[in-house]
Design a protein that fits this description.
heterodimer, A: 143 residues, alpha+beta, five-stranded antiparallel beta sheet, 3 helices, 27% strand, globular, B: 136 residues, alpha/beta, seven-stranded mixed beta sheet, 4 helices
């Protein structure tokens, strides 16, 4: 749940808008108090999710992505991406084999794997014909 | 594009291509070539928007017969899986052509991404360009 909404943008799901989405997220992350490292990690996670939506969600047809930033009831910074593309849970994809050799190594699944690794918590739901994905990051490291 | 002569080392030619991303930092590829090696410096950020520019430069060099590459990442601030894809593709192509590749300058989030994805163990990674050249 995004309890404190800092901002929301909706743009067409095209590669041309990827940097606009990312800049929006970075600005909100910094405002929320994430340090540069955490900001970049959240940016990367969102980058992978957004690139995946842009590439696949609408199967070549046009469609939008809505990105919402805020903090949840536990004080984590949240980035929520919503699209109206075909049902897809990016958290259920197969993990790549990170121990494979160069010859065996494939790229498939790596982006979504990285997204999950860069944040503290992820949640997916399918609601109102929309894919809703939330990425959570602790604002401060717990000592 | 202008060719710059001279520089602080014995490298013959510097070609610079500029790919403007939507952030303030463009991704810039600098290529320096001497009689033995090609040193590719990636400056800025590598993501789905900017990675194809890198691919293009590398494919051109490989098709020209270049076999020995160092990729200097010391000024790369950010890399997504699109950039990793480019690196993997480059490594596989060079392997097919009996070429060699070494990376150097990994740090910060770029190093984190290489480590988490397992890419640190499939590439020849060195501290700096000088050490990387020795590895080729």
């Amino acid at each position: 749940m995004v309890s404190s909404e800092k901002g929301r943008i909706t743009l067409p799901a095209t590669l041309e808008n990827l940097e606009d989405f990312k800049r929006f997220i970075v600005q909100n992350a910094e405002k929320a108090g994430l340090d540069p490292q955490k900001t970049m990690e959240m940016e990367l996670a969102a980058d992978e999710i957004l690139t995946n939506i842009i590439s696949y969600a609408y199967s070549g047809a046009s469609g939008d992505i809505t990105v919402t930033c805020g903090t949840d009831t536990e004080g984590l910074f949240v980035v929520e991406t919503t699209d109206e593309g075909k049902p897809f849970d990016p958290l259920q994809t197969d993990l790549p084999d990170v121990s494979a050799s160069l010859e065996q190594r494939e790229i498939g699944g790596l982006g979504l794997f990285l997204a999950r690794k860069m944040v503290d918590k992820t949640r997916y739901e399918r609601r109102f014909d929309r894919n809703i994905l939330r990425l959570y990051k602790k604002i401060r490291s717990v000592p | 594009m202008e060719a710059k002569a001279g520089g602080e080392s014995a490298l013959q030619m510097e070609i610079r291509s500029r790919y403007v991303s939507y952030m303030e930092e463009p991704m810039e590829i600098r290529i320096e070539k001497d009689s033995q090696d090609v040193v590719v410096s990636i400056i800025g950020r590598m993501d789905a928007v900017t990675a194809p520019g890198f691919d293009q430069q590398i494919e051109q060099r490989i098709s020209e017969g270049e076999k020995r590459f160092v990729v200097d990442l010391s000024r790369l601030e950010y890399i997504s899986s699109a950039g990793l894809r480019s690196m993997l593709s480059m490594a596989k192509k060079l392997k097919q052509n009996q070429g060699t590749l070494a990376l150097c300058g990994l740090k910060g989030v770029v190093k984190e991404v290489f480590d988490v994805s397992g890419f640190s163990s499939i590439f020849n990674i060195c501290e700096d360009v000088q050490k990387a050249r020795k590895e080729l």
